What we know:
With 187 residues, this protein is an alpha/beta fold. The chain is built from 9 helices and 10 strands. The longest helix is centred in the middle third of the chain and has 11 residues, at 71-81. It is globular, with a radius of gyration of 15 Å. The protein starts with a helix and ends with a helix.
Amino acid sequence: MELCRILSEDKVIMAVKDDKKLDAALVSGKRVVFLLKSDIMTVADVVKRCKNAGKAVFIHLDLMDGIGKDESGLKFIIKNIKPDGIISTKVNIIKIANALGLQTVFRVFLIDSQGMESAFNTLNKITPDAVEIMPGVMPDITRKFATRFPNLIAGGMVSDTHHVTDALNSGAVGVSTSNEELWKKRF
């Protein structure tokens, strides 16, 4: 499933860190799961459960235990785990995943203006399917990113309805959140 097409309708991505959140995500009407915590022993089963529930699933590769963060690791993931895509803060991982045909989300942590300029420079060198900026509760910064990169996701600290509407009104195509109440709302 293509991420940005789904976000044009759903707007909210379910950020899942544990089994309880996974159970809630599987019965949610939202269709995208960002799997933020996983390990090599259980991730294939989790991805299969998500796909059986009609969800697109993206593995945060940087937070996955037990697998190399390199081309061989990505090839293993594609062959054996079969997610819709990956999330990473690492430029080389995004480049390799793109070359292998995986959808990619490049996650950027913004702490100051220098970090923002660095992110813009990096985005001139890579072509992820989407960029997730964190924290996602900065409408002015979201607006600046959205003008330069239209497939923008706001994530991190998104915890109530006005955070979601501020991000969407500032140009984000969607938000990622672990707040189950926001998974139930339509935006």
